Amino acid sequence: MQLNKNKLPLYIVSSILFGLKTYIAYRFLFNISIENFLQEIILIINPVASALLVFAVSVWLKEKWQMRYLRYSALLGSLILYFNLIFYRNFTDFLTLPVLFQGSNAADLGSSILALMYLPDIFLFTDVLIIWYLSKKHYFPVKESYKKKSKKLAIIAVTSTLFVNFVLAEIERPQLLQRAFDREYLVKNLGIFNFHIYDLVLQSKTKVQRVFADGTEMTEIREYVKNHQSSKEVSDLFGVAEDKNVIIVSLESVQSFVINNTVNGEEITPFLNELIEESYYFENFYHQTEQGKTSDHEFLVDNSLYPLPRGAVYFTHSQNEYNPLPELLKGQGYYSTVFHANNKSFWNRDVMYENNGYDHFYEEEAYEINDDNSVGWGLKDKPFFEQSLKYLQSIPQPFYSRFITLTNHYPFNLGEDDASIEPYDSNSKTLNQYFPTVRYTDEALALFFEQLKESGLYEDSIILIMGDHYGISDFHNNAMSEFLDKEEITPYDQVQLQRVPFLIHIPGHSGETISKVSGQIDVKPTLLNLLGVKNDKDIVFGTDIFTDTSKDNFIALRNGSFISENYIYTKNQCYDRLTGEVLAIDGNALQSPKAGDNPCEPIKENAEKELSYSDKIVYGDLFRFYDFDEK
Ligand code: GP9
Ligand code: MN
């Protein structure tokens, strides 16, 4: 009895050894960036937590199996880690199931695998050797039978380390699992093994929904799209930009409330304000993104489908069949690229872009990034545009190119030298700092326009500029109401704050401000009409913004709110869009054209239907049953 107590609980020793090895690998072999102390702590805890989860199982096994289990799981874990390392050396990315089984990435790797393996890698298996040696009871007596109490202790050890890991990860990245920003974040916070489990769950869920779908829903959806769209009506601008280059600039976190507005008496966006005078400007244009933030806006723009209510469609459904702009435009001779100086796997962009038919993604590695030219999330917008231009000049024309800016990203950090205006003064540091970074992005845009003109590309291009999503959340409503000089931010105001600037700049066209209610869902059909591309069989949920408003036109937000020409519906309340007056609450009309009716109700039904159709397409991967080219 006494003897057993002094015996080595090998599962604990193994967890520490394996955890420590994994931490060293994260830190020195994978290029995982650590930004603060909390991240460092998480990085140490998570491999121990995952190892404990696996190794602790051994205490329930029969004595004969315990040591074998520990030996082989240590080996298997090390091999998984090592495969990831080899993959990472080539792609600076972690393995995921779709990449392993469907992508060309893994196939590419096959041929170069030997070149990515180095002799010192052997040290990655040191812990396996030690565990193996100890398990043979060579040195220490090893504990092989566990009493109830010790088994309970094992459960407590596993759950508490996982819990601490999860809580710290939640503090560091709220909603990490639902939002799945980036594989590096997931690995950093959960550990590579829990990340694989997460990936497995996600993948199985996706697969099940897909398996149970058949093409029958497409007929109904097609009917709905045909009846509810005005995309068939042709606006006067049909074909005005035929064969022109298309440049889309996505302005990180820029909301409409900064347009033609001032802070401390200074204009916030002088360049955009000027540009509006020479562009089509949509003053009631809404972002429709949800958890996938920037990537959701990219999805909306390229597909005119809604992003998902949970998670980022770029992650969860990157293997679906779509009919995205780059693919459609390829048929018109267009070359498609994205310019964005961030890690290519962020939002799973590398995988989704390939699926969406982009010819090239100029990501972090295409840029020279150093301490001087970066701030916050990375390369500052001015050098970003400067460095992008040479690439833009070199690609085949006509091109479809998206530029995604980064400087105006939360927490809106900017060096003093780059700040042309003073921050605002309120109790929200976030809102205060927002203005100088918005101004910086505005200046970067001005510079980009100059460069486009100098390079001669300007005349042959149309330029679409758009805010991707909100930058200031409702958490800052106190400061926001102060800035907007309002008593409070009501739910109605909150919806109105979801407006983001949208400009279509066509050289030679004079400016026009358009008040029609519109949103990111409308970009694809609008752009295709400008380019003179007819596609009657396309399934899009947006309409060409330049055509007349149909009377049931509405813009649905992903949180259940919507905006129609006359009403705004949010949080169970129906408002008059123009006055903000409450017309109905919870289905009961206070005052409406027909007493007893809630004027928002019929639109609400349509909005819900439309969102559910779009979700069906994505969850069921329904486009695989639909022929877009059939005459
Ligand atoms: C990251 C950038 C910002 O690459 O697009 O992402 P966000 O957090 O805004 O979605
Ligand atoms: Mn963004």
UniProtKB/TrEMBL annotation:
The chain crosses the membrane at residues 9-29, 41-61, 73-91, 111-133, 153-171. Belongs to the LTA synthase family. Residues 244-533 form the Sulfatase N-terminal domain. The keyword Oxidoreductase does not apply. The keyword DNA repair does not apply. It is a multi-pass membrane protein. InterPro entries: Alkaline_phosphatase_core_sf (IPR017850), LtaS-like (IPR012160), OpgB/LTA_synthase_biosynth (IPR050448), Sulfatase_N (IPR000917). It is found in: Cell membrane. Keywords: Cell membrane, Membrane, Transferase, Transmembrane, Transmembrane helix. Its EC number is 2.7.8.-. This is LTA synthase family protein. GO terms for molecular function: transferase activity. It is an enzyme of class 2 (transferase).
